[in-house]
């Protein structure tokens, strides 16, 4: 029964929140009522059984909870208002060019009146259904700070009376950047879940991110970054079945069975990359990341990877996105081209900014291992294991650390 409720949460959370937001125009009411509906399901479904239409059951239950809350908060004895709450029809359809309820909710959460990082965090919570803890890990910030950020975002929407409207076609290009950031982080959470109590790979999140990105691609076929993000997702998703062993251990790219990769997804991703190259327009962040993945997925084995091209692409990316995580990923390619000593010197300069990021310590442990600095490598593995949340990654890191004793 727990599995059934978990599946329902992953499949229906965004739909329920979107339906209630559209009807009541209040994110707080929508989120609280949706949470109460799922809590009710936890109580009732074990005894009553899973309903034939879980999404419909949850939406109706959540709507009733929202109406109850509005009744409690109402200070006026207004029979007409109560009748509207009980029998109101759905508000007029203003879908415009966006015909998917969850995609509409993403666009409304990504309103330009909110700071970019706030838009992403709010949408991950309201649409992706990620917990505050998962979102905090994705942003490398404390959980309490992330909770406050989301709370302030909802308060600003309410006090500023930001309308929940679908953007017109002319407004879509200006709004798409924040939406792509959200979808990228939703996909990443599915690709390598940060929580210790979830599946290592959440295909529900990766599939939903791809589905929504395809919709945006249909809306904005000339947008290079939309095409780049879709290509990146497809080539990454293609490796999904080879990324975790039957025993639940992460398999790094260099050790994966490339025969298990989904060649159809890779071919589609490669076509999108070639289309963008043929357009002759300077690439953005997602297009460069897609090109890097195209190099990796073109090689028949890790030894045939064109690392000089990978480093050159990362050099382009650093100019657009000089973040420490991009620098860390570039160092991995530098290690293959110029050796681990050169790469270690690069990432050691990132220590202060990435001290709480498990992948920094895992990468450092690998470089130290290759240099024969066993004790330092073990200490770095210990720190990576301490910070890692994904069980498959923890299992892999633990095995690598324990091998040092041999």
Automatic annotation (TrEMBL):
Keywords: Sigma factor, Transcription, Transcription regulation. Residues 106-157 form the RNA polymerase sigma factor 70 region 4 type domain. It holds the Pfam family Sigma70_r4_2. Residues 175-275 form the DUF6596 domain. Gene3D superfamilies: 1.10.1740.10, Tetratricopeptide repeat domain (1.25.40.10), Winged helix-like DNA-binding domain superfamily/Winged helix DNA-binding domain (1.10.10.10). Residues 14-76 form the RNA polymerase sigma-70 region domain. The keyword Transcription regulation applies. InterPro entries: DUF6596, RNA_pol_sigma70_r2, RNA_pol_sigma70_r4_t2, RNA_pol_sigma_r2, RNA_pol_sigma_r3/r4-like, TPR-like_helical_dom_sf, WH-like_DNA-bd_sf. Belongs to the sigma-70 factor family. ECF subfamily. This is RNA polymerase subunit sigma-24. The lineage of its organism: Bacteria, Bacillati, Actinomycetota, Actinomycetes, Micromonosporales.
